[in-house]
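User: Fold this; tokens only.

Assistant: Input:
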Amino acid sequence: MAKVSVLYADWCSSCPATKSFWKSLRNDIPFQYEEINIDSERGKELAQRHSIQSVPTTLVNGRVYFVGKPEKSRAIHLLKTLK
């Protein structure tokens, strides 16, 4: 099962839509989901390790796949491929 991690910030205006997008997608496809604040210790570590410079950024199975809100068809295709 794929693991989706969304890096977000409290001050980010587009982050709530991206988080809602991934939460709603769980109704269509099962996957693990977590939200990580970029200002937390873990968020800072991930941002540095993956050279993340903007939020929201979505990691799937530990790799950066999307910056911003992804297109639904691309996200579904990726999750089905990584099952």
